[in-house]
Design brief:
Elements lengths: L20 H22 L3 H21 L4 H23 L5 H63 L4 E7 L5 E7 L8 H4 L2 H7 L8 E5 L5 E7 L8 E2 L13 E6 L4 E4 L6 E4 L6 H13 L4 E6 L8 H9 L13 E3 L2 H21 L1 H7 L12 E6 L2 H6 L3 H16 L5 E7 L10 H6 L2 E5 L9 H4 L16 E6 L2 E7 L1 E2 L2 H11 L8 H7 L1 H4 L4 H8 L41 H16 L30 H15 L7 H12 L3 H14 L2 E4 L6 E4 L7
Parallel strand pairs: 5-16, 8-12, 8-13, 9-10, 9-11, 11-12
Antiparallel strand pairs: 1-2, 2-4, 3-4, 6-7, 6-15, 13-14, 14-15, 17-18
Helix pairs in contact: 1-3, 1-4, 2-3, 3-4, 8-15, 9-12, 9-16, 19-21, 20-21, 21-22
């Protein structure tokens, strides 16, 4: 049988390894014998061996001193060198081949091995003792720091709050941004909220930096209190959204930001709804994107988004799927449905209600098999979460169309908890009118306040009842605020900053992970759900021809049947210039009439077929056939004139002069429309009194 020439045999030896007690003694004795044998044969002067041994003893002693070895270790090593040198000198002078010489050398080797073993064990024990002493010293120093903190804060709480505490423990946060105090309350019925109410005074007394707080929360029982003290302001800096896009689940929670101690805030929405309040400029839209990001990463959640402000909250999550990608592979949107108009929102809410009712009946056996009264959510049976931007305003609106949407939103919340349909509502403020609905307050146990330092309309006591000591001034930075869940008391948090490029990366990275709606629910949702991504319902998303003007889909962009409706083509107003001697109002009026005549067959035309009904006033625009739609047409025309006015803007009187001939609309009516558009963000109001003018939002610097 042939053998492998490269195969190594024998005992493996590590020639780079250091000597142990046995191998060291063996090396020393064999070396001494070899030197003695050569010296005796060559008549070497015996004193040379003793001189070499003395030099070795001195060198090893010096090296041991640098290593701070014990005295007995240094003595053992020096003795070994001198004894080996003395034996070699004697053997060279006589003969190393006698039994006396061999026996004494063997005895010397055994003694050297024993001594090396003994000093080795002593050095190990000495090193362990030194490490234990160092650890004890660190513990003493840390304990001293903790005792100092305990004494300082016990005295401070006694002075500020009038409560005598017995501090049980002080835990330093791993992030180095603060610490927690676990203390026992005094007897006599003292509760933690006596300390919580004085959060601002405690922070001021401790001279904490801006953005740092001292908040009290319940301890392990009602006689204990936890006091979290932040010493480093972590709210001022932007925190980028984590670049790890691993899978999430509704059962394991969604991360929606970080606490001041660096811990992520995990939210569990299997049975809970969420409510977030944040004024303009507080970072609310960015936070909504982080919410959608967490659900896009989930394997058992389908996010549906309603945003009546041109669908802006959901557009970045849809466009990568509709506009393609560099790899050329099919990409699914990061959200499962987007509604940007009241009509599409009605379709979505009707589908959600139908799904909830159908699941109640169809999955009875599944819940019985799982022995639960909650629908078992899984990738094959996903949960639906409706994210409704400014949904609280919809619930509080007096508009008839908004009231119809509000009724359906409340029905979804009311009937679908067990059937895995939950909502995330946002609001522009935390006021009584917004938070007045009892069902919203009862079901939305997850509460978020993005303050950004804004005091108007941010009543934290209404959003977080029973949580004293929360003040808007504690979170003056964009993206910062307060977060409360059933699992954690309300406290400061910072939202991650997520940018469009990262949103696109998340959509591409999670495309294959999104679940699909179960067959039973899909059938209940009907064709409105199945055709949600049809071109005639999504063309407004990818239409970039009118980038200089408002890209919001018209109110009639979709119908219950999913067909796209017609509208006014006003893009030609972009590049028109007024001829010399013609006023701005006359130019706008002329261009507006031309566009209407080009869109509707209202002008005289010899080639056109005669209408089936006689048209009066054939020389102008006859809108009598529109009936009740005339006000809507006038409102649309007024908005078109406002948009055509450009960055300079215009006023109610100028618009009234343009529309007077066609619609007969007076200045008071148009003034009311302009005020509504200013309130909902469609237009920006500039100036006051007789100098008031309005600019369409597409011409503002933020657009």
């Amino acid at each position: 049988m042939a053998t492998n020439p490269k195969k190594k045999t024998g005992v493996p030896l590590d020639w780079a390894a250091g000597h142990g007690p046995v191998t060291g003694a063996l090396s020393a004795t064999t070396g001494a014998y070899a030197v003695a044998a050569v010296g005796a044969a060559t008549h070497m002067p015996p004193a040379w061996a003793l001189a070499a041994a003395t030099a070795g003893a001195i060198g090893h002693t010096a090296a041991g001193l640098r290593q701070r070895l014990a005295g007995r270790t240094l003595g053992a090593r020096a003795s070994s060198w001198l004894l080996a040198g003395g034996w070699t000198t004697w053997a060279c002078a006589t003969t190393p081949l006698s039994w006396t010489a061999l026996g004494s050398l063997a005895t010397l080797g055994v003694g050297m091995a024993a001594a090396a073993r003994a000093v080795g064990l002593y050095e190990e024990a000495r090193e362990n003792v030194a490490m234990e002493e160092a650890a004890a010293q660190i513990a003493r120093d840390l304990s001293a720091e903790r005792r100092s903190i305990a004494v300082e804060w016990a005295d401070r709480i006694q002075r500020v709050c009038g409560v005598s505490l017995h501090v049980l423990a002080v835990e330093m946060w791993p992030t180095g941004t603060g610490f927690s105090i676990d203390a026992e309350l005094p007897t006599g019925g003292t509760t933690y909220d006596r300390i919580a109410r004085e959060s601002a005074r405690l922070a001021a007394d401790a001279r904490l930096p801006h953005g740092c707080t001292a908040t009290a929360s319940p301890g392990v029982d009602q006689g204990r209190v936890l006091i979290d003290v932040t010493t480093v302001n972590v709210l001022a800096e932007d925190l980028g959204y984590p670049e790890e896009y691993g899978p999430l689940s509704v059962h394991t929670g969604f991360p929606w930001g970080v606490r001041t101690d660096g811990r992520p805030v995990n939210v569990f929405l299997r049975e809970q709804c969420a409510l977030a309040a944040g004024p303009t400029g507080s970072g609310k839209t960015n936070w909504v994107h982080t919410v959608i990001a967490s659900m896009a990463r989930a394997t058992d959640v389908l996010p549906w988004v309603i945003d009546l402000n041109a669908g802006s909250a959901g557009l970045p999550w849809v466009r990568p799927a509709l506009t393609g990608n560099e790899e050329g592979r099919a990409v699914r949107p990061g959200i499962d449905w987007l509604a940007s108009t009241p009509e599409e929102a009605h379709l979505m809410l009707d589908a959600a209600i139908a799904i909830a009712k159908r699941r109640k009946v169809a999955y009875q056996q599944l819940m019985a098999d799982a022995n639960t009264d909650l629908l078992p959510v899984s990738p094959n049976l996903p949960q639906i979460i409706l994210i409704i931007d400014e949904g609280a305003e919809i619930l509080a609106s007096s508009d008839r169309e908004m009231r119809r949407l509000a009724e359906k939103i409340l029905e979804v919340i009311r009937i679908s908890r067990a059937m895995a349909l939950r909502t995330v509502l946002t609001a522009l403020g935390a006021t009584g009118s917004v938070l007045g609905n009892l069902m919203i307050r009862r079901e939305a146990k997850v509460r978020v306040a993005l303050t950004g330092g804004e005091k108007e309309g941010m009543d934290l006591a209404k959003l977080f009842p029973g949580a004293p000591g929360l003040r808007v001034e504690q979170a003056p930075y964009k993206g910062s605020g307060f977060f409360g869940t059933p699992e954690s008391s309300p406290g400061l948090f910072k939202a991650w900053r997520i940018k469009p490029a990262q949103i696109r990366d998340i959509v591409l990275a999670t495309s294959d992970r999104h679940p699909r709606l179960d067959e039973i629910s899909a059938k209940a949702a009907g064709p409105d759900y199945a055709r949600r991504w049809d071109h005639n319902r999504t063309a407004w998303i990818t239409d970039t021809h009118d980038t200089g003007h408002d890209m919001s889909p018209p109110a009639s962009a979709t119908s219950p049947g999913g067909a796209a409706a017609g509208g006014l083509a006003l893009s030609a107003l972009r590049d028109t210039t007024a001829p010399a001697g013609v006023s701005e109002e006359d130019r706008l009026a002329a261009e507006f009439r031309r566009q209407i005549d080009a869109t509707f067959p209202t002008a005289e035309c010899k080639e056109a077929e005669p209408p089936s009904m006689p048209i009066s006033n054939a020389g102008g625009l006859n809108l009598s056939a529109l009936g009740g739609e005339q006000d809507t047409a006038a409102r649309t025309a007024a908005l078109a004139v406002l948009q055509a006015a450009g960055p300079a803007g215009t006023g109610a009187s100028a618009i009234a002069r343009v529309l007077a001939e066609e619609f007969g609309t007076n200045r008071q009516t148009i003034s009311g429309w302009l005020q509504e558009w200013a309130d909902d963000g469609t237009a920006l109001r500039i100036g006051a009194g007789t100098k008031t003018r309005y600019v369409h939002h597409t011409h503002t610097p933020e657009a």
